[in-house]
Amino acid sequence: MTSPYWLLPAFLLLSFQLRVADTLSFHAALACVPLAALAGDRHGWRGVGMVVVGGLLLPFGLFMLAGGFPAEPGLYLVAIALAALLAARWPMPDLSGGFRPGFGFLAALVLLPLHVMVARERLDSGLDVMVIVSLLPLLFFLLFLLGWAQAPAPPVLGPLGLATAAGIALAMLDGTVLDLPGRLHYRLDSPADFLTGAACFLAGRYGHTLLEERTSGTALPRWPLATLALLLVLWGGYPAWHALVTLAGERGDLIQSLAPVGSNLALPLAALLAGWRYRRRGILGVMAIAAAVEVAGVLLAWSSANLGTLVVAFAFGALGHGLRDRRDGTRTPWPSGSWFGLALVGAVSLPLILGLEVDEPRDLLVLALALATILVLPFALRALLRRAGLWLSDAARRGWLAVTGLVLLVLGLLPHLKEALAAVGAVAAMVWFGMLGLGEGSGWRSGEALMMGIGVLFYLAMLLTALAALLARLPAVLDSGRELIRWLRPRRQPGHPMATDGIRETVETPTDAMAWLPRLARWVGWVRNGLVLIAVVVTLLLLMDEFW
């Protein structure tokens, strides 16, 4: 069993909300839920501890100019509860014989949707601190568990519908007949919220039927594509409804309060179903639709694009895929992390190479197309090589992907080398004067240059990661290159038939002369880790300085 400590930075990264530009952000807090499921299932109570510690900043609202941690106490409690249930292997009781909505369930319908702004303070350093009580995700998780326990639908969905109707009435009467406090809101206040709760309840029933009772994968839902499409419309259909609100004129407020679309939690349910029913194809399809909706929102000035949406879709799709594997008793190998690394490298280096401004919709579209081209091109080249009878080994494929990433990172760094060196100098000055207290200097807080220096350190860490991956697989890359040269050389001779000798595997023949390469790759990895450690420590010191 691998160490669970990697979950700590993973939860910290997913909890952070980053604002890249006016039209581009990263917010993937919902992905903490499937990550918590993985932690509790694989690592038991140690995984639960990682969820508690790693997501500790999730329930507190801490916002800076570049981003912060959203106040999501409901998601934090859902993550802990899910991890604990899986760690304890606690069986759900069977409620199919009957379920009466008692005081606890009715109290949950009244209290959990409450959104209370407890306090909000802006410090002198510019840091916004918010304390919010909002537990609506916990209600949806309760509905999912009731569905898993096979509770009858009318006793569950009936009170949910009445609570939603009461919330809609409160929202419509607020400011006219009623005068509710500005810090208090009831978030179960639209048909979209009722549909989301009903979808969570039915998802729990489907999961129990298909996983516990080992029913055929086509039994429920009966029309999976239609269900998937409805969930995606429930998530991304709000812009079309907003256009209807605009056309309605004076009755726009009434139509807006009755919106049956616009639920953020519908996308995770759609990805979960797609991963279960269609495996990798479903995950890729939902991610492609989510990316298209986000890009369309920027191009049509609906909203800014959230890169975290793709992470959330992939995380819940992978959870559904894993549930399908568990039911079937199979183990589907996932693609290596090299593809994710190449996508990350492309997203970071292409704006530097092409001179793109990610806050411009046109440049954002160019970046998306260029990134898609980089990801598709290796598949096309591999298909052409296979048609020619040449097959790359797994080590050679990863090595060539590392070469591609290294080239992109170098091309992105060279035009900005002078600015990068100045930014790294700002970080070095902070370490020398501010952290170590050496020399005589003041004003080590270099502002924008220091923030740029932290980004350059992470960029150099990515570059060294690609270099280490290439060094570790350099013999396989050289062998595949020699194989390609041997295949091309006879074709240049006159009269050579345009054919190959058949499919052959590229044989890796590491020699003793290259035995030092793995050792060099480890040294490069240590330098990379040092750069990351310096960047993280400097970032934490800046956050502490801003807070105090």
TrEMBL record:
Species annotation: Halomonas aestuarii
Keyword field: Membrane, Transmembrane, Transmembrane helix
Full protein name: Uncharacterized protein
Keyword Transport: no
Residues of the signal peptide: none
Transmembrane annotation, as ranges: 45-67, 74-92, 98-117, 129-150, 156-178, 223-242, 254-276, 283-301, 307-324, 336-358, 364-385, 397-414, 420-438, 450-472, 523-543
UniProt keyword annotation of Membrane present: yes
